[in-house]
């Protein structure tokens, strides 16, 4: 890739983005319906069952121990009647992420399940932190946490060929973060590309800003959603749920906890909860 300007590389990446399918229309419609005060579950069921893959993922996820339903459910309508709106929204987005993230990202050294599990685990971690922190409207946070690494899909096509270069640069300059090395080699990073993808998919600004900010030490302090997304991602990495070759090459600012509004005493119970729920999801999805 040497010899090309950074803007040419960005152009190539965004050209590739056009070939990534739209966020599932089923999910967009369902998420719009979930914004209403009184959600008509029959209407919601009609929309979701349209997409067999999302429906299958939804039922697998909802029946995992992570969501603690009192009994096994076989239909969407049964599931909806036992869940809160935020849980439905969470599981719906989680069901869609499989479509994009349940594939190998060779450049980042990730197998298919790892990427999906990392994203699901980050979503669960964000949920655990937000609940303890008393966040009243966490829906944008769930979306950002579940989709924060979506840019890796597009960049992976480029990272794969350049991974040796990135590793070499980090070896020679140990102070560089993985993102700085990504920039030096690729002229872009997965946070910027992911945010652009979500903007094109018409997600709220709060969501794509948090994705843009999740590795940027100053941007991640600008909104609570961004701070919580970055914190959830960091803790997920520390738990060891599949972040691949870039896992330790990031930095977090000292005041991230206060920007996220999270008490230090809430970290350990959140980590334990997210760990157990992630294991439950893994068992439900892949055993
Ligand atoms: Fe990331
Ligand atoms: Fe991540």
TrEMBL record:
Sequence ranges assigned to domain HD in this UniProt record: 115-238
InterPro entries: HD/PDEase_dom, HD_domain, HDIG_dom, HDOD, RNase_Y/CdgJ
HDOD domain location: 20-217
Listed name of the protein: HD domain protein
């Amino acid at each position: 890739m040497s010899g090309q300007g950074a803007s040419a590389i960005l152009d190539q990446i965004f050209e590739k983005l056009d070939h990534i399918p739209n966020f599932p229309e089923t999910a967009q419609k369902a998420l719009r319906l979930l914004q209403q005060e009184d959600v008509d579950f029959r209407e919601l069921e009609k929309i979701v069952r349209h997409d067999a893959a999302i429906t299958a993922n939804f039922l697998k996820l909802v029946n995992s121990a992570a969501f603690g339903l009192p009994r096994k459910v076989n239909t969407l309508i049964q599931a909806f009647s036992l869940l809160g709106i935020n849980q439905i929204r969470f599981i719906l987005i989680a069901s869609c992420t499989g479509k994009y993230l349940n594939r190998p990202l060779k450049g980042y050294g990730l197998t298919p399940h790892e990427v999906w599990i990392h994203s699901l685990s980050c979503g669960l971690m964000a949920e655990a932190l937000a609940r303890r922190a008393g966040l009243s409207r966490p829906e944008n946070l769930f979306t950002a946490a579940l989709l924060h690494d979506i840019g890796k899909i597009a960049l992976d096509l480029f990272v794969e060929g350049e991974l040796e270069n990135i590793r070499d640069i980090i070896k020679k300059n140990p102070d560089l973060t993985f993102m700085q090395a990504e920039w030096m080699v690729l002229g872009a990073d997965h946070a910027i590309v992911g945010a652009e993808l979500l903007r094109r998919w018409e997600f709220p600004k709060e969501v794509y800003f948090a994705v843009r900010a999740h590795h940027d030490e100053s941007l991640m302090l600008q909104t609570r959603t961004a701070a919580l997304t970055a914190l959830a991602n960091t803790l997920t990495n520390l738990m060891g749920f599949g972040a691949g070759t870039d896992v330790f090459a990031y930095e977090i600012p000292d005041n991230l906890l206060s920007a996220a509004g999270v008490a230090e005493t809430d970290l350990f119970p959140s980590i334990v909860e997210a760990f157990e729920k992630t294991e439950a999801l893994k068992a439900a999805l892949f055993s």
